[in-house]
Amino acid sequence: MGLISGVLTLPLAPVRGVVWVADQLAQAADRELHDPSVIRARLAALNQEYEAGHLSKAAFEREEDQLLDLLYES
Q1: pLDDT digits over 8-55, tens only?
Q2: Helix count (H) and strand count (E) of the chain?
Q3: Which one, of 69, 60, 9, lies nearest residue 33 by Cα?
Q4: Residue pair 74/36 in contact by the 8 Å Cβ criterion
Q5: Which of 1, 2, 10, 21 has its Cα between 20 and 30 A from that of 42?
Q6: According to the 3-state scheme, what is the secondary structure of the chain?
């Protein structure tokens, strides 16, 4: 970046910083969402909730299907 373009775009620096942070957060969320170990842990927690009687069979199956779909996509 040249001196003139650096000076002219200096007011946009905070915006670029916010965009970079938002991009980093989105990437981290995407990695966590598709991490097989996280999905397996969520499946185990879901199973415990169902066995404890905190979830109906329909709710359990719906959540389980969504988590299994995410697991197979990874």
Answers
A1: 777 777 878 888 889 999 999 888 888 899 999 999 999 999 999 999
A2: 4, 0
A3: 69
A4: yes
A5: 21
A6: CCHHHHHHCHHHHHHHHHHHHHHHHHHHHHHHHCCHHHHHHHHHHHHHHHHCCCCCHHHHHHHHHHHHHHHHHC
The amino acid that residue 5 corresponds to is S
Is there a contact between 64 and 42 (Cβ–Cβ < 8 Å)? no
pTM, two decimal places: 0.61
SS3 state of residue 47:
helix
Q: Say if residues 60 and 24 touch (Cβ distance below 8 Å).
A: no
Tokens of 74: 């990874």
